Hints:
Structural class of chain A: mainly beta
Radius of gyration of chain B: 13 Å
Shape of chain A: globular
Structural class of chain B: mainly beta
Helix content of chain B: under 10%
Strand content of chain B: over 45%
Distance between the termini of chain A: 41 Å
Number of strands of chain A: 12
Number of helices of chain A: 0
Helix content of chain A: under 10%
Oligomer: heterodimer
Amino acid sequence: AQTVTQSQPEMSVQEAETVTLSCTYDTSESNYYLFWYKQPPSRQMILVIRQEAYKQQNATENRFSVNFQKAAKSFSLKISDSQLGDTAMYFCAFSGNTGKLIFGQGTTLQVKP
Amino acid sequence: NAGVMQNPRHLVRRRGQEARLRCSPMKGHSHVYWYRQLPEEGLKFMVYLQKENIIDESGMPKERFSAEFPKEGPSILRIQQVVRGDSAAYFCASSPDSGGEETQYFGPGTRLLVL
């Protein structure tokens, strides 16, 4: 069975600085997809970034980028130039052949002014 | 293009009552997923449906819970005889096709409180 682990329950960062959120996963599948979702206080789930496992190039979306290490089964999220609006809970998620998402426990990120 | 719609946004029920949660997928999406988020936890998969078919209900409790996605109208998650442990946020997500490569887009969720 697939599992997703986020080992940092809480993190904080100063505005304009860079922060990295960690995620590891376990699977026996060779083709899969990884996601980071953001859940602000409104509790809406917002897609931040996605990565296809067959792609070696790390995905990037503006200030958000990932460090995908397939052999290590690691998928960390880097947020550059942190903004107050980035304050939220961040979930790492895995999707394999079945299509259903397996989520980690989440990391609460606080951006401080 | 409207996003995934869920209603009601908040629902209060007393123990033993029934709860009905509705989800309208994004236009053009025929695949619906339901997830549950207990307080201070991540989302847990419950059920995956296509129009008129349940594809995967491996995450759904065997009793009291059911889901449907009729040919016309929204997907419904139904919880019979609710208990306090059912209090949670229930999220619906939709995608245009099946498979892990399809990004799922989430609705705003329904917060169920059982008194």
